[in-house]
Amino acid sequence: MSDKNDNLDHLETLDRDLHRFSHLETAAQYVSRPAVGPGIALIFVVIAGLMAALLFGSTSNTLIVAAAAVFGAYMALNIGANDVANNMGPAVGANALTMGGAIAIAAVFESAGALLAGGDVVSTVSKGIVQADAVASTGIFIWAMMAALISSALWVNLATWVGAPVSTTHSVVGGVMGAGIAAAGMAAVNWPTMGAIAASWVISPLMGGAIAAAFLWLIKSRIIYQEDKIAAARVWVPILVGIMAGAFTTYLALKGLKRVLDIGLPTALLIGLAVGVLCWIVTIPLTRRKAVGLENRNKSLKVLFGLPLVISAALLSFAHGANDVANAVGPLAAIVHASQEGQFSAEVAIPIWVMVIGAFGISFGLFLFGPKLIRMVGSQITKLNPMRAYCVALSAAITVIIASWLGLPVSSTHIAVGGVFGVGFFREWHAERRMRESSNARPPELRIAPEERRRRKLVRRSHFMTVIAAWIITVPAAALLSGVIFLLLNAVLG
User: Fold this and answer.
1) Which of 303, 309, 295, 286 is CA-nearest to residue 230?
2) Residue 216 · residue 386 · CB < 8 Å
3) Per the domain annotation, does 200 fall within a domain?
4) Which residue among 175, 235, 263, 443 is least crowded, i.e. fewest CB within 10 A of its CB?
5) How many CB atoms lie within 10 A of CB 33?
6) Is residue 7 situated within a structural domain?
7) Total count of domains within the chain
């Protein structure tokens, strides 16, 4: 009997131990899951460093180039995690794309844009922010570029962590400026260029928001508030698709195809006009066919805007990959050139292996860390549907065209997020106006109180303030961080 009791005790003890192990396994899985993304990112960064060391060859500067490749890969990961959300967030927030579909499309088109149309010549001093002849030696120039790379990557990483979409272009500009001041003093900075960039902080989001709001007003007045919405959509959707096609053709010609074909603004506009008219004609029968059997309500309109929105998101990603990959690999290319030639110049060619690091880094960053910012831009600032998201995407392309015509350096991040804010504030103003009109038509006892009307906000003020604050401090924060890192690198390794 005692043996039987002993066996039962042993079984109970074993059950308790197995139960503890199952809890331990569950806990281990829970703890390790957040480490999967950083783990894969670390492997990619290490591979980038090893590839750089292998392809650069065995010289006295091999370790420096390998280290620069590591930080270039780190920067590319952060661009994918933060910047790409601006292109995909509206489409995901409008439910035109799933998160997985958005990541897949963005990864393909970002990489294609970077590898096929990424600029083969990049300004190593980031659009003339620092005058190259003001830097004393090649060694100081290398450490300045390294400091700019590290500081801009750290800043974008911090912004992603707190959930703020910031401009990676401005982060790199701030990094280069801070390192240039630390290396050669205030006189080394091209202050008129910095003034133009500072102006773009205000101009680009306001312009993007205004254009997005204008198109939303057009869609509301010409389609949504019409008695026969479907008949109105059959007329206006092909026109809007034609405008989108023309705008994106011009946008890609100006910003995304520099490596393939370098054309001016007038030629780009003519090409865009031709493509826009062609797409308008082609879309007329397609829209009519798709509108057959649709009910006369707003929900039916979403079907007609879904595909144009997906196409616009893909085109934005292609142009972004072509235009912004230099933010990740520009300083790296400068370091590679200076290490190879023993001297530095204002412009250098980007080696293909450097471009590959940038392209794959952006895709990995998007896949591993992008969903957080995609959700924030797509659904947490204001509620988007396909029509509103379409207005955001269209405003991004048109704003870049106008900025190119005016000669203003603009940020795709500021334009896209400004478009989201523009749509949200326009809806807020429009809802307030309609509420006031309906309230005035009611008896005094049934009217909505002004306090209640003010409470019904359609844009989250906490996100608005976080984003604006992050935009304002991006350049000075990246500059300060870069200056400190440069002084440390120069003191320890210089």
Assistant:
1) 295
2) no
3) yes
4) 443
5) 9
6) no
7) 1
